[in-house]
Amino acid sequence: MQSYPAFTAVPARRALTRPGPVPPPQYYRTPPPDPPKIDKPKREWPPAVRLYVQRSFAAENSIGEIGREEMELKLKKVISDAAESNTLHTVDWDNLPLPQQMIQAERMRFHTMTTSVTSAWRDLSTLNVQETNGISNESSSKKRKSSDLAYGQNEQANQPPWRSTNTGGAFEDRLTYVDKRQRNDLVGKTPSKSQFSLESRKRRFEGGENGSSSTHPYVSTKENSPMLDVEQGPLVGTCEKLEKKYFRLTSAPNPATVRPLPVLEKTLDLLKKKWKSDNNYSYVCDQFKSLRQDLTVQHIKNEFTVNVYEIHARIALEKGDLGEYNQCQTQLRVLYSSNLGGHPMEFKAYRILYFIHTCNRTEMNDVLADLTPTEKKAPAIKHALDSRSALALGNYHRFFQLYLETPNMGAYLMDMFVSRERLAALTNICKAYKPDVKLRFITEELGFESDEESARFLCDQGGQAFLEEREDGVRLLSGKVGHIFEGGKNAAFRKVDIKGQI
């Protein structure tokens, strides 16, 4: 028989630190097995349902005003309702209206209901006015003239809320309410500059008042301008004049002073001829703004509208009017999104060059993100992207080669910031080429047409004292003039602020 000691053996301590706590014993339990997966039976859709879905997505059954997502949601709801009610095999899918037809019918019912409610509300308002007039006529003791009634209504309308709502108390009767205009008259306050401007503007647009018989064809008063009814659709002009000065609208447009589309087409032909013969930008710009205004008030958006904005934008570019160009560019961006024709590639390239000029990196990133691979291969857009890449990399040699090869009218935009880039390139040349550099080298590198133009540019930037004529030609003392070009570059790269900038 084996004997056991009457004590428990403990190992001797070999350090003065107290041993850590003994972790509690862990008990492991086998996890229960996963429940078996039950495959859901696939639903077999009847052939009639499949044909109904195919007819719903057919191109000939699509309705332009109803989007695809809205149609898909309606289709899913129709089929789901039939499946939940177990009527997939009983519904006449061949004669059931398509989901887009259901949506169109619902919209028509809603429009009819809205129109009926509106007409009923108008009839009720007319009836209330008639009843009110009848009651006022029957009461002879409180009878007032129409002028007194109008005065009382105006006085009540001009009163503050606490006087019109709280009519039962006597506290407000002891108070005297003075209008701001009356207070200004009592104090003798001089009218402000804004009030004087408003009065001048009012007199300018008042044609036949105060006994003055104005014969100006463009003057229109607010009272004589007809109020447009939204339910009647867009305005259609009746003016037959080809030329009309531009006036900013201060009231609803008068059809008698708005030219219809056939007249506007003749006006565009006339303006193109006058621009080629007279080249009078102030006149042409005013006429184009009037032409654009007539298109806007009549809600005309077609290929002719795109053509008008493109021609005006090109003329503004040629004359360096970036404010007017940018207004046209903004509208063209909206018109191009509607696929109305025109030259979107050309003006997208202008847009990239415009953002290079304004140093607008945020908008530049948005434009680059929206470009498709096909658009990037277009010659004008590829040239603009290469110009932007050359400037970003500091490759002024490549940039000025692209400057001399600019397609379309992009050179007018590049002319607006090429001086700034020449100063930046001159700064780098002065750091790299010391103590001097040939003037001919600067002419070739910076895209000048001749040495005279290059020397004139250097003199305009304050470098005339650092040009020396030697046996091998004129040289620029690049080691001494660098700080002058550096200061000019910093001033040129300040933030560009343009009227109408996007």
Characterise the protein shown here.
- The protein is an all-alpha fold and 502 residues long.
- Strand 2 and strand 3 form a beta hairpin.
- The model is unreliable at 135-190 and 207-231 (pLDDT under 50).
- The protein has a 3-stranded antiparallel beta sheet.
- Helix 15 (379-393) runs antiparallel to helix 16 (396-403).
- It has helices at residues 47-57, 68-84, 99-138, 146-158, 161-165, 180-187, 193-205, 261-277, 281-297, 303-318, 322-337, 344-358, 361-370, 373-376, 379-393, 396-403, 410-414, 418-432, 439-445, 451-460, 478-492; strands at residues 437-438, 467-470, 473-476.
- 55% of the residues lie in helices and 2% in strands.
How is the topology of this model organized?
Blueprint: H1 47-57, H2 68-84, H3 99-138, H4 146-158, H5 161-165, H6 180-187, H7 193-205, H8 261-277, H9 281-297, H10 303-318, H11 322-337, H12 344-358, H13 361-370, H14 373-376, H15 379-393, H16 396-403, H17 410-414, H18 418-432, E1 437-438, H19 439-445, H20 451-460, E2 467-470, E3 473-476, H21 478-492
Antiparallel strand pairs: 1-3, 2-3
Reported for the largest beta sheet, the result is:
3 strands, antiparallel
The overall average pLDDT, rounded, is 77
* Number of helical regions: 21
Structural class: mainly alpha
> How many beta-strand runs?
3
Strand order of the largest sheet: 1-3-2
Oligomer class: single chain
What's the alpha carbon Rg, rounded to whole Å? 40 Å
End-to-end separation in angstroms reads 103 Å
Order of helices and strands: HHHHHHHHHHHHHHHHHHEHHEEH
Give the helix proportion (percent range).
Answer: 55-70%
Inertia-based shape = flat
Low-confidence stretches: 135-190, 207-231
Which band does the percent of strand residues land in? under 5%
